[in-house]
Design brief:
By secondary structure, the protein is mainly beta. A five-stranded antiparallel β-sheet has the order 1-8-7-6-5. A four-stranded antiparallel β-sheet has the order 4-3-2-35. The chain is globular. About 45% of the residues are buried.
């Protein structure tokens, strides 16, 4: 009954907001939105598969650019072109509408978040060991497979390549799920703000909470105590207790001057630093928020003496240490030491290297196109003089390139040409190969290419049927096999032998957009995103 009341309340709020918005606009515009936009962006413009379409979320996108996006689509997103379905004046009506504020403004604060909280089962009552439901599978070599075709998640045995369990998920899961330190629990974030905790040992959903209206991603602390949620709407970071997902703290994302709020581009756990690192999308700042109770207090404003704490100091727990930048960060990548981050903006021509300890930019990255650093991987590469160098490789969202960067000098070692713009790149410590897709390409999105990490050359290709999408690779725990996604409604997971580069098995799946190996994630493998 409680869950039904919560659902009813949320539905009434949504319908009221739709009415409040629509009353100020023509029926024609409302019908255009319903026909072309509602599936991805939600009836109330709060977002779904696509982002929220509200003025608060569109501050960095000028209206003429929004009109262009409606007509021509947008690179590196799922936004298609509508020029063949909409007249220009109809597209302009939609552009005008999404820049009109909802009245009254949408609110999702403490009361709403706490009211959404659902505890399905007390985890303390469940066995803290793998149950019989896992059928003897290695719990550290399981894959969590997100299937958006029918909004389900599968648990897959990474040795036998058999599905052990499948359960319904929240709508439009986004961003990689995150794991507790020992790999027992997995946490999912959906585009519309739902955070779900699932017990892999016992194959059961533990708890859920709606932490926002439009959520970017979530991160789990290395001590397993906290979940931090990055929101587009409201402009905030949410701190949840990892045990039951109850709300612990709301952190408004205000800039240093205190006069502007921002969406959060991404938040990740920096385990060796015992902190979360978050980039803000609408103000040029990076935040580091410690979850170490013994961390040094954070100084704000003028300080007379750091040694004697003469000045304005705040307890370190979840207080942001700000790095002020000249440019925005849309996504970023940790070096393996977690001392530096490499970041890029969708609008910038260069990337930047930020040293977290000194809180400043220390280098530019000369990167063409639109590198996707958040999907970068690292390895040890031996140059022609026999010297081992730590390198990072990143796909590119609007150019057929993989960029290999020296992490010592931050110089580009090589631009490897590929068949088209790609989104994901993956490898493993025990494999000489790295896999990259061309899923942003119209002609070659069905091709997965293999790069030899020693020679930095493309050495193999996998091809699906023309028009299909083949993307997102994840390796098994030992690196002996890799799974690739045939990203279709009647798709599949392709199991690849990473020595022979042959497909050895095909597992049917409903648009398997991502798969995540427990061991590789909790050990922060250099071959996968963190």
């Amino acid at each position: 009954m409680m869950i039904f009341r919560q659902w009813l309340t949320a539905s009434c709020i949504a319908l009221w907001l739709i009415g409040a918005t629509s009353s100020a606009h023509s029926t024609e515009t409302a019908e255009l939105y319903k026909t072309h936009c509602v599936t991805c962006h939600g009836e109330n413009r709060f977002g779904g598969i696509g982002p929220a379409l509200l003025p608060e979320n569109l501050e960095r996108l000028r209206k003429p650019e929004a009109l262009k996006t409606i007509l021509n689509g947008r690179v590196a997103t799922q936004m298609p072109a509508f020029s063949d379905r909409l007249k220009e004046d109809e597209a302009k009506q939609l552009a005008d509408w999404i820049y009109t504020r909802v009245t009254p403004e949408p609110v999702w604060g403490e009361a709403e978040i706490r009211a959404s909280h659902i505890v399905h089962v007390d985890p303390s009552t469940l066995p803290n060991r793998p149950s019989k439901a896992l059928k003897g599978a290695d719990p550290l070599n399981l894959f969590v497979v997100v299937e958006t075709g029918d909004h389900h998640v599968s648990i897959l045995d990474g040795d036998k390549f058999k599905r052990l369990y499948r359960f319904p998920s929240r709508y439009a899961l986004h961003g990689g799920p995150k794991f507790s330190p020992e790999g027992r629990f997995v946490y999912f974030a959906s585009r519309d703000g739902w955070i779900t905790k699932f017990d892999i040992y016992n194959l059961i959903v533990v708890a859920e909470i709606r932490a926002g209206l439009n959520t970017r991603n979530a991160a789990v602390s290395s001590d397993g105590k906290w979940v931090m949620v990055a929101n587009y709407l409201p402009h905030s970071l949410m701190v949840l207790n990892a045990e039951d997902l109850s709300l612990y703290r709301i952190i408004p994302t205000l800039n240093a001057a205190g006069d502007k709020t921002s969406r959060v581009s991404a938040v990740y756990d920096a385990a060796p630093r015992k902190s979360f690192v978050a980039a803000l999308k609408d103000v040029p700042e990076v935040w580091e928020l410690s979850y170490d109770a013994n961390a040094e207090p954070v100084a704000e404003g003028l300080v007379h003496d750091f040694q004697y704490k003469e000045g304005a100091f705040k307890p370190a727990m979840f207080t942001p240490r700000r790095t002020l930048l000249a440019d925005y960060l849309d996504d970023f990548f940790f070096t393996q030491s977690y001392g530096e981050i490499l970041g890029t903006s969708r609008d910038a021509s260069k990337g930047q290297v930020i040293l977290l300890d000194s809180r400043k930019k220390i280098a530019d990255l000369d990167l063409p196109g639109m590198p996707h650093l958040g999907s970068g991987i690292t390895w040890q590469w031996q140059d022609s003089q026999g010297k081992l160098r730590s390198v990072m490789a990143s796909p590119n969202l609007n150019a057929g390139l993989v960029t290999v960067i020296d992490l010592g000098s931050y110089e580009v070692i090589k631009q490897i040409k590929t068949l088209g713009p790609g989104f994901f790149m993956r490898s493993h410590e025990n494999s000489r190969y790295a896999f990259t897709d061309s899923m942003m390409s119209k002609e070659n999105k069905n091709v997965l290419q293999v790069i030899d990490k020693k020679t930095l050359e493309v050495v193999h290709e996998f091809r699906a049927e023309p028009g299909q999408t083949l993307a997102h690779v994840e390796f098994t725990r030992n690196g002996r096999h890799a799974l690739a996604s045939l990203w279709e409604m009647d798709g599949a997971l392709l199991v690849i032998d990473t020595r022979t580069l042959k497909v050895i098995k095909r597992i049917p799946a409903k648009k398997p957009v991502g798969k995540y190996n427990v061991w590789n994630k909790i050990t922060r493998s250099e071959g996968t995103s963190h």
